[in-house]
Design brief:
Blueprint: E1 8-12, H1 17-28, E2 32-37, E3 56-60, E4 73-76, H2 83-88, H3 90-111, E5 114-120, H4 147-167, E6 171-176, E7 179-180, H5 191-201, E8 205-208, E9 214-216, E10 218-219, H6 220-232, E11 240-242, E12 247-249, H7 250-261, E13 267-270, H8 285-291, H9 299-314
Parallel strand pairs: 1-2, 1-4, 2-3, 4-5, 5-6, 6-11, 7-10, 8-13
Antiparallel strand pairs: 9-12
The structure holds uridine-5'-diphosphate.
Uridine-5'-diphosphate (UDP) binds at residues 82-83, 178, 189-191, 194, 206-208, 213, 215, 250, 272-273, 276.
């Protein structure tokens, strides 16, 4: 039987890359965790080690349909997040962010639960300023191939704020910048997983464009620590940027991965996808100030752990 102070926490997208690490962390703090996922872009293997935990439940469910549960907290992480996955069925991607958020906000309202939205640096689009702080309103092409994700996540932020103002819901919004680590999907087309898998297999390293575009990569353990801190900090709403401000060009990243994997793969250049942001770097002063957080794991350390994971997966 559940003890009186044990929380029931719903994690949507709980068997995805970030969601599964979050479920693990919440279970280790003694909570009951309900993981909901439609398994569209995630893998049930991610939750293999949790499935026998008596405090863990898994439901295969698509949050674009209503969900009736009794919970105390909700983390809304459901949405395909890599460009190839979210562009595969753009209408469903928008529905997940919009109908999904409406359903989860309705559930939070009925159960009087605190609710966390996994937002994204993509709300800044192809930014004109760098680093990006939370006050920057972004430059997103409403008609482009990334819009189904970017505009969906922007609309979700709007919904969260309207439920906060209109219904006094206790909300948290984090804008998550590029994150990497074990349990990334090997075929999700993201730069870290692509480069590591290519380097391990001796395949060509595919750089899109000239490789001078930048990204800033945060290791999964640092991200999870910040998410839990944001949820547990009273009287804040966000949005709060979460990411590692160490910025790197994609070509530098390719060279670093070749070096760390000791690979002889060649670098080749391919067409840059439409609307691919030229820069991306978080200003994390707000996170430092209000949740006393900054990432601790360097890119070299994090990549080494991620390479180890992909070697075990591919061998
Ligand atoms: N990228 C690349 N080669 C790849 C995959 C991605 O050069 O095999 C580039 C991509 O064009 C982008 C950056 O790496 O500029 C990050 O891409 P990712 O899909 O990981 O994330 P996002 O664009 O959403 O930040």
């Amino acid at each position: 039987m559940k003890s009186l102070n044990q929380k029931s926490i719903l994690v949507t997208g709980g068997s995805g890359f970030i969601g599964s690490h979050l479920c693990e962390n919440l279970l280790s703090s003694g909570n009951n965790v309900i993981c909901v996922d439609n398994l569209f872009s995630s893998n049930k293997n991610n939750i293999n080690s949790l499935i026998n935990n008596k405090n863990f439940e898994f439901y295969r469910h698509d949050i674009t349909f209503p969900l009736y549960l009794e919970v105390n907290q909700i983390f809304n992480f459901a949405c395909p997040a890599s460009p190839i996955h979210y562009q595969y069925d753009p209408v469903q991607t928008l529905k997940t962010s919009i109908h999904g958020s409406i359903n989860m906000l309705g559930l939070a309202k009925r159960t009087n639960s605190k609710i966390f939205q996994a937002s994204t640096s993509e709300v800044y689009g192809d930014p004109e300023i760098s680093p990006q702080s939370e006050s920057y309103t972004g430059k997103v092409n409403t008609l482009g191939p990334r819009a189904c994700y970017d505009e969906g996540k922007r609309a979700a932020e709007t919904l969260f704020f309207d439920y906060y103002r209109q219904h006094k819901l206790d909300i948290r919004i984090a804008r998550i910048f590029n994150t990497y680590g074990p349990r990334m999907h090997p075929n999700d087309g993201r730069v870290v997983s692509n480069f590591i898998c290519q380097a391990i297999k001796g395949d060509d390293i595919t750089i899109y464009g000239n490789g001078n575009q930048t990204r800033s990569f945060c290791y999964i353990d640092d991200l999870i620590e910040s998410i839990v801190k944001i949820m547990n900090t009273p009287n804040i709403t966000g949005p709060i940027n979460i990411g590692n401000p160490q910025e790197i060009t994609i070509i530098e990243l390719a060279k670093k991965i070749l070096d760390l994997t000791n690979s002889k793969s060649n670098i080749i250049f391919k067409k840059l996808p439409e609307d691919d942001p030229k820069v991306r770097c978080p200003d994390i002063s707000l996170a430092k100030k209000i949740i006393d957080w900054e990432p601790k794991i360097t890119l070299d350390e994090g990549l080494t752990k991620t390479i180890k994971y992909f070697r075990s997966l591919l061998n």
